[in-house]
Amino acid sequence: MGKVLGDVLGLAAGVAVSPLPIVAIILLLATPQGRLNGPLFAIGWVVGLSALGTVMLAIGGPAGASTHQQPATWVGGLKLALGVLLVLLGAWQWRRRIADTSQAQLPKWMAAIDRFTPIKIFGLGLALAAANLKNAPLTLAAGASISSAGLPVGQQIASLAVFVIIASLGLLAPLGLVLFMGERAMNVLGAWRDWAVRHNTAVMAVLFFILGLKLFGDGLGMLIS
Q1: Are 10 and 177 contacting, i.e. CB atoms less than 8 angstroms apart?
Q2: 53, 143 in Cβ contact below 8 A?
Q3: The pTM is what?
Q4: Average pLDDT of 205-218?
Q5: Of 72, 85, 63, which is closest to residue 225 (Cα–Cα)?
Q6: What is the distance between the alpha carbons of residues 155 and 82, in angstroms, rounded to a whole number?
């Protein structure tokens, strides 16, 4: 189990560094119902990651992700394909970055985030976790790593839970600040929000490249071993 956790912690850290979801929860925490909206968004995020990881575990078992305590060939192929996808996305993100970061703008949907209903807020957290171009491949790769390790079901679930917790730290940090510091936290969070908005594209591009190359290397190693 220790080896599996070592494999997935880097992927979890990549999910945790997600500028737009962090900006979204900061904006939600600044709304009049922030103490409700923030946790609701975080719950949606956790459910999204957990559901996607669980789907991968459910697929990996019947599909024989582990053979004789070794990852199956298709697991290596999946990681290699996800790695190529992330590298290509990184190149796309890098090309669309803005040279003058002071001109960076929030997505238009964020302007109406203070008017979102509780269901929409939960759904937003779910979508930004499970349907995100970075988070979905990383979560699938983590699920594949866990399912291919030949662990008992209980240890697989525990490994996935550790992944989800680490992957949620980026959202839990602002939430914790507001819950413990109240309004005093908003100045700090405002600075975080502004930095994330200005550097979102560049940060995402670098993460795509680094994590894509890691998955590509892991997958290639499995295929040739």
Answers
A1: no
A2: yes
A3: 0.84
A4: 89
A5: 72
A6: 25
